[in-house]
Every structure is written in structure tokens, then in C-alpha cells.
Amino acid sequence: MNKKQFIALVTVVTGLSYTAGYAQNITQQQEAFKGVIGKTLAESKESWTKPVAAPKGAPNVVWILLDDVGFGATSTLGGIINTPTFDTLANEGLKYTNFHTTAICAPTRSALLTGRNSHSVHEGGFSHVALSAGFPGYDGRIPSDKGTVAEILRENGYNTFAVGKYGLTPDEDASDAGPFDRWPTGKGFDHFFGFLGSATDQYKPDLVEDNAHVKPDGRHLNEQITDKAISFIDRQQKAASGKPFFLYYAPGATHSPHQVATQWSDLYKGKFDKGWDVFREEVFSRQKKLGIIPANAVLPDRNPNIKAWNKLTDEERKLYTRFMEVYAGYLTYTDHEAGRLINYLKTIKQLDNTLVFVIIGDNGASKEGTLNGTVDLQRAASAKLSLQESFRHNQEVINEIGTPNAIQGNYPLGWAQALNTPFKQWKQDADSEGGTRNPLIVYYPKGIKDKGTIRTQYSHVIDLLPTTLEYTGIKAPEFIRGIKQDSIQGTSLVYSFDNAKAPSRHTIQHYYIFGARSIYNNGWKAALPYHPDLIDVANNKEGIPKNYRENVWELYNLNEDFNERINLAGKYPEKLEELKALFEVQAKKYNLYPYITWDDVYNGRIHKNY
């Protein structure tokens, strides 16, 4: 085979462009031999490959990512639900209140782990067969030239562990037959314990350890993943004391199904009897007192599709309150399990040497519970219940809310808006801060000087990888396992650690989730809402009115109107056109084309090749 034929073969088999640099880097994965080889040992000189070591003094790194938590849910950000672990980390660290996710889980997680926008790593939708498409922005397969933080840290002397939700393995690869290159262990993690999908039962999870499915032991998943995270670190510390580790701790909580022991949900008995309207007002007031939001902020109106609490019947209030008691207990329990991990690090005297990032939610609070909430959506949907019928059904099974029988447990839409205080809209809405704005905590005793302070710099999940690399003294690699790497797209936040007034360096950011879209640029934001009829998706006969979906671009000045109350599209049409043009530039650059919407998904316009 001549050289030209060999190059052609490599290109076809690997999909890579073969270059001299690529070939050279393959040989450099192991350090080149520097000794002398003679015919005999006496004529030869030995040379030893030096083991890879992390930069001197590099800290351990822990990323904690919660699921489906609204901006105003936790006590950390002025909410009513107690989260003492996160409160402590925030009070001894930094609170970033202008941090953003993508508005839905898999895109957020892919962007977080790679430091690149979700469509550019092929996760504009999901890795699930039903929600992926055969286009570069949507096929659900993260390319090897977009290496993860785990791959980078492992090649720089870290041990790497992940527990909980992964959500980025294509369905067709998720059996014990593999292939395993898109499982967590194929993306840089030494060990993994959790589930590969987007959601799972908390008592009967679809559980995986490393590269095989395992049988759950009946305990709550939060407890199991925390125990496993501790065991991973314990073994590593005993075998390689002094070697830093990276832990990605991503519980399935608080995604549905909301399942938790009554000892936790009973903590909130009667706490939400005042309802979601009073909840919003109380949280909004607390957020102002804590300086989380501007002192002159105004609370947006309640969504017109949600009834005022005082207009509900006693039966409705009783049912909806129970949903919220369970959710609150679920979130407090999740904080408790994260606290066990933090306390363990303190016990082994590693907490002071650990850089901790906590992202409170991979998107805003979930709108997937419908107007009435859901207990067992599969049964309700199969029966095609009307709104009234689904309410009656939920009444009949009210005692199952929060239990292992609540296989699709989720709160009603009214609580989703309340949990997203002070913003409009919710999960999936990439046009709205309610879908994309989540709190970030940065904790590191050795390195954080202004403990307990707030940072308002604009930031996004793609920023955590470059932040981690800069703070640990590791450069983004040109190659990983011989594959030339695409550039990192995020912006390190280290510049803001010691300077609360530093101007934002992340100045442009686009968002797109199945039709909903927006573009941010230096405080201005253009947004195009796209709201499918939620209730119809759940097969209810009475849907949200069609006028709920208005595909008209909106314009906001977030510097003066942080929670998007005043639409300036009519006042500044030239600014709107400028931002719309910028969105198109981003769309072409980052694989957003073709625009795939929820209607395309539900109407079967996405054609599968398997």
C-alpha cells in the first residue's frame, strides 16, 4: 500500500483528515525513547517514560449539577426550600446570579462537559432515538475532536469519576454490548455509576456501573450515587494519596419522577398552603433583601394559563399543595446527600483542597407536569384523559405522590412558574431567562477571597471547562489520543473571582431548543418564543389556547430589565434586526441548521435510519 492509499484508508475508516501532524501526534502519545539501543545491554543506554502528573498544587475538582431546579427554588437564592449544604458553600464561596444553561438537559450537559455549544457537539436535541435527527447539530453523538473535561484532566494526571445522570449515550449504544466509546468511560471517566438516559425511577433505576448494567439495591438513587462517589474517592486516596481527582456528581434529582421518603416530604406539611402566588411574592422579596436581584425589580405577571391560587377549589389546593410538599422534600433530600459528600471530603481533610462548582439546575423548573401535575403520566396519557378527568385521577392516587408508585411524578405548572421566580416561562424555553438562568456556586477555601459575595458577570455552562483548566494550570490540549481538538468556545470565569466589578468577558451567546431561540449580545437580547401546546403533548383534550404560541421576535435590554418584562421590539426595530442577523451568523457557525422544532418531533417529520 502506498502513502496515498494509506491516507485514503485512514480518512474513510476514521472520518479524520490525515495530516503529518496527526501522524506525528500518534507517536507522541507515549514519550519518545531518549536512550541508546545497541546490540548488547552494555552498548545500550536505558530511558524511562515519565508518568503524567498534574501541575504542582493542582486542587481536586468537584462539579455538582442538579436537574430541573428553578432559579428561585433553593434557600441559597432566596427560595423557601431549605438547602443548607448549598447555603454553606455559597456563603463561603461566590454566587453567580447571571449564569446560564441551555434550557434542557442533554444540551446543557454536553455543553458543560465539552466547553462548547451544544449543537456544535451534536447535542442540539438528545441522544435518544425519538429526539435525535440525522444532522450534525442533532445526531446526539459527541465527536472525538470535542474532548470532555474528564478526558483533558485524565491526560493531565487526574483520576476522573462520574456518578448519577449522564444522558449523552445514544440509545442504540446503551446495551451491555456497547460500543462503549460514548459511555462515560469512553469519554474520559475512569469510573461511572449511574444511568445513561435522561430520567429514571429513583428506586428502580436503569443502573450502570462502568460498562455494564447492574441491579439496583432498592435504596433511593441519591443515596446509592453518593455512597459510590465516596467509595471511588476513598479507593483513589488509599492507592494514590496526593493525586488529584475530578468528580462529576450529577443526581437525577430533581427531575421527575419526584420520589422521596415521607420523612423528607413531611418536613413541608402545610408550608405551601398559601399557594403559588404568595410563594412568588415571598421569594421575590427575599431575593431583593439578599441582593440577588435589583432593588427596583418588578415581579412579572402570573402566566395567563395558570389560575390564581385563590380561585382554585379546596380540592385543587389540597392536591397541588401535596405535589409541592413532595418536590420540596425531594430537593432538601438531594441537598442532604450532596452534604454527605462534602462532609466526607472534610473528614479526609480534602475539602480545603477541592475546587467545587455547584450548578443548581440544568434548566429552569419543569413545565412537563401539565396544569394538574402528574403521578403516573403513562396511565393517564394512554387513557387520553381530559383536564377534568386527569384531575380526578390524581385525586384518587394522591397518597401515591412521592412514592415508588409515582412513576412520572411531577408538580403542576403553577409551581413551575413559582420556582422560577423572578423570571417568566420555564424549562425548554430557550427564549426566556426562566428556561436558561440557573445559579452557580464557586467554592474553594484556598482561593476565594470575597466569601459570600455575588457575581453578576454574564456566564454560561460552556465557561466551566475553561475556568477549571485555567485554575488548575492546565492548557487545553491540541490533541487527545491523537485526534486534533476543536477550539474551546467558553470563557474562563477566573477573571471575576477576585473582582466583582470586572466587565463580562462572555458577551455573545445563542440559544435554540426545538424552535424556541434567543441571542444575547452585551446586555441586549432578542428572543423568539416557540411554545407547543403542553397539554396536547400529554394527550389531554383541553389544550393551552393556540394564542399562547406567538412566533414573533421580542427584544429586551437586560441591563435595565433583567427579567424580560418590557418588549422593546417596536421601539428599537434596527437593534432587533441587528441581533436577528447575529443569531443567523451563530446558527451557521454552530450547526443550528436545519431548525428542528417540537412540531417536527411530535408530527413524525424526523426520519430514522435505524
Question: What does this entry look like structurally?
Answer:
- The chain has 610 residues and is of the alpha/beta class.
- The protein has one domain (61-602): Alkaline Phosphatase, subunit A (3-Layer(aba) Sandwich).
- It is built from 18 helices and 18 strands.
- It has helices spanning 3-14, 20-27, 84-91, 105-114, 149-154, 221-239, 262-265, 276-289, 314-347, 377-382, 387-396, 413-419, 433-436, 464-472, 494-497, 534-537, 573-589, 598-602, and strands at residues 60-65, 94-96, 99-100, 159-165, 191-195, 208-209, 212-213, 245-250, 354-359, 440-443, 453-455, 459-460, 479-480, 483-484, 508-513, 516-521, 524-528, 554-557.
- The strands form four sheets. The protein has a ten-stranded mixed β-sheet.
- A hairpin with a 2-residue loop joins strand 16 and strand 17.
- Helix 6 (221-239) packs parallel to helix 9.
- The longest helix has 34 residues, at 314-347.
- The protein is globular.
- It starts with a helix and ends in an 8-residue tail after the last helix.
- 50% of the residues are buried.
- Residues 1-28 and 534-549 have low confidence and may be disordered.
- Keywords: Calcium, Hydrolase, Metal-binding.
- It holds the Pfam family Sulfatase.
- One of its GO terms (molecular function) is hydrolase activity.
